[in-house]
């Protein structure tokens, strides 16, 4: 028995290590690939003047790409159902493929027209993702990822306002730390501008940056504004999942399906309203199609992005269900750090001590809020892994 217990413990450790590594790698790849796609030249690429070249700037398509990846989660669900039927037919009781496939609490079954309740958070997700994709065009990958940590501010505030969740003094203090850290990171992006796409892939600094980067300021504002919609999405999701028993992976699949349908329906309308009068813009459907189908580096990266977000959701939910949400938030911190290191290593960014300070303050506030630092954690609160993993644990 002791030997069997030891083998089981070793196997559990290997599974958890695999899930954590998979979540970290897929999460890092997703942000890096999105930034790499933004850097692809799609017009006037042979022009000797880099300033006249045009780069891939299609945030609506990237949002569509994300929902395609989330829709892949439905494949895992149906594979789990098929697996269960096969095991039952053979007279064996085999657990679901991943814990995230199973509902973690009892409640009313979500069926019929009630599944459309997930369309509300989907619309919030759609808006937030599109705004963040625009922001990523004008900011570096690491600043983009760090600024997304601001979602803690709005999620905590909205939970207090709308879910009537009481936050202790140390959690309010942690939110102020997050605000301070986000402010430093945002200012570092504006006052210490990063390289422009025209120089990123060439590794050139022939075109000096201006002392105050208005484009970075727009990007920072877009990413921060998107967090309001993301926080709203989280609050609605939590409200729905508190009443209904929904496997988290199914919730992701539903949102992916609803989001994919919504974006596909909206793209022709947006083209008629804005795209025709602004050729080459974000809503020019024909130009988007031309760019995606003409350049292999664009559509190839798009496929990789879709798979990375699917795997990130899969691994992320499995980690939250198998370990706990505190570990999940700690891993996300490592994810941001790796994105930063890779961007620096590829020459996509300049090193900034101001950004280091901002990131440190931001991470400290986030870890305190998520009870990841024992000294500040509340012993009376339930262990994060004991409740159902919510979608706020996702990308």
Automatic annotation (TrEMBL):
List the membrane topology term(s).
Multi-pass membrane protein
Any single GO CC term annotated in Swiss-Prot or TrEMBL for this entry = membrane
InterPro entries reported in the protein's UniProt record: EmrE-like (IPR037185), SCL35B1-4/HUT1 (IPR013657), UCP036436 (IPR012404)
Main localization of the protein described in the UniProt heading: membrane
Keywords associated with the record = Membrane, Sugar transport, Transmembrane, Transmembrane helix, Transport
Pfam families tied to this protein: UAA
Q: Where in the cell is it found?
A: Membrane
Source organism superkingdom: Eukaryota
Give the transmembrane ranges.
15-33, 64-83, 116-138, 144-163, 175-194, 214-236, 257-274, 294-317
Give me any GO biological process, just one: transmembrane transport
**Name of the protein this chain belongs to:** Integral membrane protein
């Amino acid at each position: 028995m002791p030997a069997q217990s030891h083998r089981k413990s070793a196997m559990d450790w290997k599974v958890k290590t695999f899930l954590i590594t998979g979540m970290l790698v897929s999460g890092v790849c997703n942000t890096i690939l999105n930034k790499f796609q933004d850097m692809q030249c799609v017009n006037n690429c042979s022009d000797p003047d880099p300033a006249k070249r045009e780069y891939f700037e299609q945030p609506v398509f990237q949002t569509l790409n994300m929902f395609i990846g989330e829709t892949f989660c439905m494949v895992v669900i149906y594979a789990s159902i098929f697996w269960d039927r096969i095991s039952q037919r053979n007279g064996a009781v085999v657990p679901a493929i991943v814990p995230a496939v199973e509902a973690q609490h009892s409640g009313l079954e979500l069926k019929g027209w009630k599944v459309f309740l997930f369309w509300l958070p989907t619309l919030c997700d759609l808006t937030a993702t599109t705004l963040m994709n625009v922001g990523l065009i004008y900011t570096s990958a690491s600043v983009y990822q760090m600024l997304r940590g601001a979602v803690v501010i709005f999620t905590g505030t909205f939970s207090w306002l709308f879910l009537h969740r009481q936050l202790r003094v140390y959690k309010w203090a942690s939110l102020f730390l997050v605000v301070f850290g986000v402010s430093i990171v945002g200012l570092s992006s504006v006052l210490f501008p990063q390289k422009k796409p025209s120089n990123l892939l060439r590794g050139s600094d022939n075109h000096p940056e201006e002392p105050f980067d208005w484009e970075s300021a727009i990007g920072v504002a877009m990413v921060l504004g998107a967090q309001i919609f993301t926080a709203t999405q989280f609050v609605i999701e939590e409200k729905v999942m508190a009443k209904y028993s929904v496997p988290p992976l199914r919730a992701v699949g539903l949102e992916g399906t609803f989001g994919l349908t919504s974006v596909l329906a909206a793209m022709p309308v947006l083209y008629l309203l804005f795209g025709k009068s602004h050729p080459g813009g974000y809503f020019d459907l024909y130009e988007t199609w031309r760019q995606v189908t003409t350049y292999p580096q664009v559509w190839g990266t798009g496929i990789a992005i879709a798979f990375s977000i699917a795997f990130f959701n899969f691994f992320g939910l499995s980690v939250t269900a198998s370990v706990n949400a505190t570990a999940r938030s700690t891993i996300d911190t490592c994810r941001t750090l790796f994105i930063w290191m890779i961007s620096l290593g590829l020459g996509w960014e300049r090193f900034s001590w101001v950004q280091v300070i901002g990131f440190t303050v931001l991470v400290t506030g986030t870890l305190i809020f998520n009870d990841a630092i024992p000294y500040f954690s509340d012993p009376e609160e339930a262990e994060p892994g004991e409740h159902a993993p919510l979608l706020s644990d996702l990308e």
